[in-house]
Structure formats: C-alpha cells, structure tokens
Amino acid sequence: MSSSSDASSVTFNPDRPPSLNYTIKCNRREFAITVFFTLIFLEAGILPLILFYAIRWGAHLSNTKNLAIITSLVGTYSGYKMARRSWYLFISDSSHQRRPLGAGRFGPDAFTLQIGLAMTAFFTPLVVGSSLNPGSVHTVAMSLSCFMIVFCFPFLITGIWPHRIKMPFRVSSMPPWTGLPPAVYTLVEDIVAVDGGGCVEFRQAWRIRYEHSAVMRHIVRVTSLWWGASGMLFAGAFIAIAWTTADDIGYGIGWGLPWLWAMVSGAITVWWVHEELKRESDEWSSPEVHRVYSLHIDTSADEKLVESQVTQKERHHHHEVV
C-alpha cells in the first residue's frame, strides 16, 4: 500500500519554516563529525604526502616501492566507514528506519552509489600507478582529482536541470522516472538519515521542508551547482598541472590542492547557507518564499504514519510557542 506525497495537504505555522527535527548538538554528533573528517583528512591528505616525501627524500626508495607502501595504507578508515554504513543501511535490526522512503530492504540510497563510484575512480589511478614498473607518480597524483570529477558530476547535471532528469531506477527516495532534485538534496537526506541517525523521521522532515520552501530549494540548487561546477573545473586543472610538472610538485598538487578546495568551498557553503536560512526565516510569510512544490514521492503506509507524526510534532511545537 502506498500513497503519493501531497505537500499542499499539509498546513504549517505560517510564521516559520517546518522544522527538520534534527540537530548535531546532541548525542556527541559534533564530536563524531570532527573525528570523521579529521581521520579522513589524515588518511587521504596528510598521510600520502608525509609518506611520499619522507620515503623519497629520507629512505631514498624507488617510486615503485614508495607508491606501493602508500597504496597499501590509504583506504583503511574509509573502507571501514563504508562497511559500517552498509551494515546500518542493509543488515542491522534498525535498517528499516534508515532506508530511503519507499525502498526495499536492499535498495541502496543515492549516496551509496555516488560514493561507491567516486571511490572506484579514486582507487583506479592509485592502484594502476603503483602497479606499474617503474611506478607512475603522475598517475597516482590523479586519485583525488578523479574522485572529485565522479563525485561532483551528479551535482552539476542535476543542478543545471533540476527535476528534469529521470532515471529508470529508484534514486534514494525518488521513485523510478521521477524528476530528480539537485543532488545535494539526496546527499543531505542520505547522510543525515543513515550516518547521522536521523532515520526516516529526518527523510520525511527534509522532504516537507524542501517541498514547502522556495528558499530551501534555492539553497539546494545553488550548492549543487557550486560543488559540481567548481569541483570538476578544479579537478581538471589539478590533473593538467600534475601531468605537466615534476614528480615532486605534481604529487603535492594532486594530494594537497583538492583538500584546499574542499575546505574553502565548505567554509563558503556554511556561511552562505546560514545567511540564506536566516532570510528564509525572516521572509517566511512571503508567498514567494512559502511556495509549495511536490516531489511526488511514493510512501508506504508505515512511512505515511511517520510523516503524520512529523507533522504533528511541528503543529505541537507551534501551539507551545503560541
């Protein structure tokens, strides 16, 4: 039994946007996020740079041995996180609470597919470059840039043509042949629901917020365009530079500058989104801001019940405020 999402049937407090019913300021979530990004940065940023130059200039080993050592170490923590995420999504007793709306037990979310393809693009030049004899420093230096291209491409095309691209299979909570929202929508939904423990309640609250807020749709589209366009542009530039410079310079650029791009882009995104959310709150009563757009997401009877619970929480909070 299923029913199609009908955002226009839900009435919320006209004075503020629907709540997302989620915060990172509890259950040590901020600490967990800090640890995650720190370890990922160490694994795929600091460690490859330190090892390469220490072995090259200190131990004076060949490029083949040098790159083989680096390849054997990179991917340990990220592999563990991917396996843990798959456990949460497919195998654990609470997997039904984390999976996409309307999806079956083994239906992967969009982020699983996106990060899986990007990790394949990352490890391909890493393994190929370290397997050659002699090892190819330029090939290995492309790893992060190849990851950027594959990971950012969905952001770009869905940002350029929002709700126009249709796939013959389910994409996270979006049924087959449904116009896809900009990919930041599914990125936020999937990461918070699965990795952040927001579960199906967040997926429902996120859908409702997106459907009811023109500002939120603007935020999702602009961030998708920014990360998609800048990521692919800079990745292409990093690859070109890495292949036209000396090994020492090209390797440093290939493993260092992508992180600089990510950190600067992340800081800009956080600042801009904060400003837009403030504008959304200040101008919520305006018809141009509180404008409904339905995603046409099919939900099961159980998921429809969760949707009603999320709606009731919003209304209850409104009555308490009043």
UniProtKB/TrEMBL annotation:
The chain crosses the membrane at residues 31-55, 67-83, 104-128, 140-161, 225-243, 249-273. The keyword Membrane applies. Keywords: Membrane, Transmembrane, Transmembrane helix. The keyword Amino-acid biosynthesis does not apply. This is Uncharacterized protein. It comes from Lentinus tigrinus ALCF2SS1-6.
